[in-house]
Amino acid sequence: xxxxxxxxxxxxxxxPSLDAAMLRTINSGWYLxxxxxxxxxxxYAEYIGSRHCVSCANxxxxxxxxxxxxxxxxxxxxxxxxxxxxxxxxxxxxAISECGLIPVVVDADPVTLQIDSEKMKxxxxxxxxxxxxxxxxxxxxxxxxxxxxxxxGNLLLVEDNAQAAGCRYGMHLTGSxxxxxxxxxxxxxxxxxxxxxxxxxxxxxxxARMVRIxxxxxxEKKYVFDYCGRNSRLDEIQAAALRVKxxxxxKDNDRRREIARYYQQNIRNPRVTLxxxxxxxxxxxxxxxxxxxxxxxxxxxxxxxTEKGIQTLIHYPIPPHLQKCYRETLPVRFxxxxxxxxxxxxxxxxISPVMTDEEVEEVVRVINLTH
Length: 371
Ligand SMILES: *Cc1c(COP(=O)(O)O)cnc(C)c1O
Description:
- By secondary structure, the chain is α/β, with parallel strands linked by helices.
- It contains 14 helices and 12 strands.
- The protein has a 7-stranded mixed β-sheet, with helices on both faces. A 3-stranded antiparallel β-sheet has the order 10-11-12.
- The radius of gyration is 21 Å and the shape is globular.
- Residues 58-60, 88-89, 91-92, 134, 160, 162-163, 184, 186, 196, 198 line the site of pyridoxal-5'-phosphate.
């Protein structure tokens, strides 16, 4: 069986440094808000190229804390609209609606699978105050066009960078392109902890300060609570693990691109569409958190691959606007045919830095034989 993602093998590949970091942390006697977290925040901010990094408990919290902070700072108000891609993991929307903001979902572009910039422009209303872009599947979603749209409309630009750690846009990394970015260190992400973890990056000192306050019960000064905050923190063990892994992230992403390139060049099956084929080429900045293919009659194709020993996953079978939790509350102002089509046809095939060449070749062989 070729697993979709072999987390054990990934973490073994960081030994013995990972064990040493765990032991160091355990023996330090300090488990929260200590030197590992401080060190990681500094190193991650430097890596991303942002002035500030504030760590927190997970990626959803990171995004939620950004929107909550903008509300506390008076830069957003409950009831304001936030434009967001319909084709995303539901967490992007949950962060928005949790804060009393209105997620306005916009359909995907059929080639990039990301927000369609023309449809985004059509979604603008006087209540629009922010845009959330998602670097979905590890592919950059930022563009000069989106930046201009935000600037002209005086809109905040928030990046969901949960799937794109290490992704480049020109000289900059995603996570440093908008006003603020949410990051996830969920174990399966490109930079994964050994449990949950997340962070906010931003150049905005006021925002960073507010995120830190809200993530610490709403308090900046001991026993003084100016806001009704929450408890959301990255623990020392996770920070220590991430500090071991961060220095190898670029190399791991290179290996992901190498596998993607091989898939792009060798998957030949009339039933399968490969999105953005140009991005398998050298010099591409996509970090291929996932390798999505689009397949007609996807469920039977997935079953055939499973039978032949290839594990795959679907990202995602039901888009947020069709979920029960949003069915009655989400304003769906435009049809979303591309998003709904992606949900029917998307299949993610194995990709990870620890896959062997033989495994990659086997995935291609089986896909090409499955009609
Ligand atoms: C994983 C993910 C999140 C949420 O991150 P968690 O750490 O799991 O809370 C948000 N957005 C996207 C696009 C994700 O893939």
